[in-house]
Structures are given as structure tokens and as C-alpha cells.
Amino acid sequence: MKRALGNLERQLFAYAQMRRLRALRTRDLTGPLGISDKQERELLNRLAQAGMITQVRRGLYLVPPRLPLGGKWSPEEALVLDTLMDDRDGGRYQICGPNAFNRYGFDEQIPTRVYAYNNRISAERVIGTVALTLIKVADERLGDTENVETAGGLTAVYSSRCRTLVDAVYDWSRFNSLPRAFEWIRAELSSGRVGAAELVRSTLRYGDIGTIRRMGASLDRAGVTVAPLRKLERALEPTSGLIAWNPTRPKRGTLDRRWGVVWNDHE
Description:
Elements: H1 7-19, E1 23-25, H2 30-33, H3 37-49, E2 54-57, E3 60-62, H4 77-86, E4 93-95, H5 97-103, E5 114-118, E6 123-127, E7 130-136, E8 145-149, E9 155-159, H6 161-170, H7 172-175, H8 180-191, H9 196-206, H10 209-221, H11 226-234, E10 243-244, E11 254-256, E12 261-263
Parallel strand pairs: 5-7, 10-12
Antiparallel strand pairs: 1-3, 2-3, 4-5, 6-7, 8-9, 11-12
């Protein structure tokens, strides 16, 4: 642990705090501190190794708004995601999957990683103490979000409650969310927290054919009125192929020709 700051370290933190900087890039300090490129590189590496600043990538570092107690510091999730996206022109993200399941009370398990759809990066990263699973998607698959203020005063972008339910069906293999998601959907419809019409809109915009068929069958079984279901039906082409309602179990059960689904929830 670094217990004492040298003159350059103190100057770096004073400069960052005076300018209210949350991130520093290569050559941000050479002019203000009057140091060479080599001195700057060694200074940043020294502080990163001491855990007082956090390296996002080579040449990009996050700095705390004030010196942390004990000298160690790690950025919060929203700051890491904001910085990663700001570093890529036009980058956007939304926290999804297990993190959103927990936020909306669908699942009590607290994830150890942050899952985020984004339009720039596909990777698993660890930045500071923040473990990330970054899922790159097309621009049009981003949306239907809500902003959440963090304890640190930042804004984290989450998939909305409705969008999270759709993703639980669409991205079930990644999030291990079926058949649990069908129970979540029934509970949300029953409580009125989510409406059938908005579920249909989100399914049509962000789902695929399998999502439409499983969502249609689930809403039909839940007694949803005809009008929203017709919108889903119009998005489907006639097919003789069948998919399992629960893709984690063998495709054996009652056939539902309307949605092209096999009800395999009972042996």
C-alpha cells in the first residue's frame, strides 16, 4: 500500500480535483505538471500499481474525486461503463440480464459481474474491482431504458422492467433465464407493473421469431386479450416447424399450432 505521496503525486491529484476530472489520458499531465512523457507514464503506472487510480486501458486512467481512506480506490460500475463508452465514438450501453433481474426483484441473487449490452465492445474485462461482461449488439437493439442515480451521484442506464422481461426470453441461453422468465411475466401482468401491450411492443422491436412465438404463447396462456396477440401473430410467417416453449427440456408435449410451440412444461 502506498502510504505517502510524492510531490508529483500530490500535483496530479490537486490538478484532477481542481479541474473535476474523472479520467486522465496520456499527455494530459505533461503540460500542466511540466513533466516529460516518460515521467508521466511512470507516474500513472506507479499510482495504478498502488491502487490509487484505475487503468481502463493503456493510456486511459480513472481518478478518484478525492483521495480515498487507506489509499486504495476502485471506481463504481457506472463510471467504468461511461468511460468505456466515451472512449469509443458513439458508444452506448444499458445494464441488462442478471443485474436487471435483481434490480426489478425477479431474482434475489446479486450478480458478481456487470452485464451490459453495448454497441462497441464484446469482451470480458476487470477494471478495478468491477468485473464486466460486455455484450456487443446492433444500435437498433439498444433502447427501452431507465436512468438510475447511483450512490456516487452518477447515472447508470438499465434496461427497463419490460425490456428486461423480453431479454429474459430472447437471451435465455446467455442469462439462464428460462423457464423462470415465464413466471416473472405472469406475475408482472397480474400485478399490473407491466402491461400486455407494452410487452408486445418491446417483443416486436427487440425480440426475434423465437421470442415472438414464446411470448405469444405465454401471453395467450395468461389470458391476454385478442388485440395485442394479433400484433404478434402478424409478425409471424406460416411454418410447420415447432419450437419448445421451455428450451431447456426435451421437445415433447402438447402442440400449439397457433404459435408453433410445443408445451413441454410437463412430462
